[in-house]
Amino acid sequence: MEIKKFVLGALENNVYLLIKEKDAVLIDCEQPAVILRYLEKNGLKLKMILLTHGHFDHVHGLEEIKERTEAEIWV
Predict the structure, then answer these.
(1) Which site among 11, 31, 48, 56 is 20 to 30 Å from 66 CA-CA?
(2) Please, what's the b/e burial string for 17-43 (b: 16 or more CB within 10 A of its CB; e: otherwise)?
(3) Distance, CA of 53 to CA of 37 (rounded, Å)
(4) pLDDT band at residue 58 under the 50/70/90 scheme
């Protein structure tokens, strides 16, 4: 398993992608364009989005990523 760390947003949140083969799980959500671009560039299928909590800086862009990937959301 590969772990890709992003530091994103005005509050510099840690956002992670857990990657196994071509499937990915996103932990927290910020700057959806960055995440979606990375998924596309690497041919990854987002299966699930795990949110550590519901503060605005951890869910920003959630709706856009959900619409584009159809990943399940878990909080």
Answers:
(1) 11
(2) bbbeeeebbbbbbbbbeebbeebeeee
(3) 24
(4) confident
